[in-house]
Specification:
The protein is of the alpha/beta class and 374 residues long. The protein has helices spanning 2-7, 10-23, 60-68, 93-100, 119-126, 137-153, 183-193, 203-209, 239-242, 259-267, 280-293, 305-313; strands at 37-42, 45-51, 76-81, 104-109, 130-133, 157-165, 198-202, 224-228, 249-253, 271-274, 298-301, 319-325, 352-360, 363-370. The strands form two sheets. It has a nine-stranded mixed β-sheet with strand order 10-9-8-7-11-6-12-14-13, sandwiched between helices. A five-stranded mixed β-sheet has the order 2-1-3-4-5, sandwiched between helices. Strand 1 (37-42) and strand 2 (45-51) form a beta hairpin. The radius of gyration is 23 Å and the shape is elongated. The two termini are 26 Å apart.
Length: 374
């Protein structure tokens, strides 16, 4: 923020900061669209605010213009993402801006979506609107990251979560894990579940914990449940299968799945995703491509260690949420958070950015984003 104050007008920084706050209100409601916030100012006073509230509904700029309810000739509009200039589910925001008579537009981040990608900026400038880009750029990049990954890489943003003991165990040697974290920590997990498109676990976790994988109470989004299970071994009596008719259950299987097993799962209401490949990494890589094709923006991975290890080796973990309990489990055979081959040298370790640490009762809650290899 200090760098911004040195490089940009303090009023612009303050207005964009508010727009960035507003953008985050759309989390869980707007995907696969991006979270976007907007503020309109006249004579350095806010006269209108808006954010993209629901997928398929008016964008942030249109909501802010409607909220202003006054003559906006000569106003400045602050928006966290480049205004769209094409007809999608809603009319182009550039036209709404021009119709309102707004003379200046300040943008945090350009839009990577191919149908926009600088064209909104060009259109506004061609119409005589003053456009400034880059105020709040770093904060805008942070908010935009899941949308950008989906647009540019056709993959969902992978959020890894685990609860572990102080000595780094997800479960005891008998795979018992209920409960490591305290009730307050588990409430946070339910809030996170209610903001994502899918919740993913491996076959071992599905078998050992028999999880329901739902947000309780429900959040703005109802996540599909995804089980990575090459053999389709998920029990027909599991909570997941028993509730498949109410909330989607997707099981990622390999070519080796037994035909009768496949038919039983399908009959029970489970959708099978065929993932070709010679090993776990290839099949998992294919699954991520398929989830991206379904426009899933955020996928919440809750274990186990093998699945997280495979995602780590694919360099596909983007964000982590870790709950550390003041408990010791011990044991060579106890489950660790990230298994697989791991790294050889400590200099290869993945670093986190934006790290936040807080106390949740006796637990310690850490969250941050992975800095990926170039």
């Amino acid at each position: 923020m200090l760098a911004q104050l040195m490089n940009h007008n303090p009023i612009d920084v303050s207005m964009m900061s508010r727009a960035l706050e507003l953008a985050q209100r759309g989390q869980g409601s707007v995907e696969p669209n991006p979270m976007v916030g907007c503020v309109i100012a006249l004579d350095d006073q806010i006269v209108g605010e808006g954010w993209h509230q629901h997928f398929g509904q008016p964008h942030a700029e249109v909501n802010a213009i409607a909220d202003a309810n006054c003559d906006l000739q000569g106003a400045t509009l602050y928006v966290t993402l480049e205004p769209c200039c094409h007809q999608g589910k809603t009319p182009p925001c550039t036209q709404a801006i021009l119709t309102a008579g707004i003379h200046r537009v300040v943008i945090a981040q350009p839009d990577p979506f191919p149908q926009v990608d600088g064209r909104g900026i060009e259109l506004l400038r061609a119409a005589g609107v003053e456009v400034e880009i880059g105020v709040g750029a770093e904060e805008g990049r942070w908010i935009l990251a899941p949308f950008r990954k989906l647009v540019e890489h056709k993959r969902p943003w992978i959020v890894a979560k685990w609860a572990m003991t102080l000595d780094g165990k997800l479960a005891t040697r008998s795979r018992n894990s209920q409960w490591i974290s305290n009730p307050a920590s588990r409430e946070i997990v339910h809030q996170l579940r209610g903001q994502v498109d899918a919740i993913m676990v491996g076959s071992g976790t599905a078998s050992a914990d028999d999880p329901l994988l739902t947000a309780r109470p429900p959040g703005p989004r109802q996540a599909a449940r995804v089980v990575v299970d090459s053999l389709g071994s998920l029990s027909l009596q599991s909570q997941l299968v028993q509730t498949a008719g109410e909330i989607p259950v997707l099981v990622a299987v390999g070519a080796e799945i037994d035909r009768l097993r496949s038919e039983s799962l399908i009959k029970a209401g489970v959708e099978l995703i065929q993932c070709p490949g010679n090993d776990h990494l290839q099949r998992l890589d294919h699954l991520l491509t398929q989830l991206g094709a379904r426009q899933m923006t955020n996928v919440f991975v809750e274990g186990g260690g093998q699945l997280l290890g495979n995602l780590f080796e694919l360099d596909q973990i983007d964000e982590v949420h870790v709950f550390v309990a003041p408990k010791l489990a011990g044991g060579e055979q106890a489950v660790s958070p990230i298994e697989g081959n791991g790294i050889e040298l400590m200099e290869q370790a993945r670093q986190l950015e934006g790290l936040k640490v807080e106390r949740v009762g006796d637990d310690v809650y850490l969250q941050g984003r992975i800095i990926h290899r170039k």
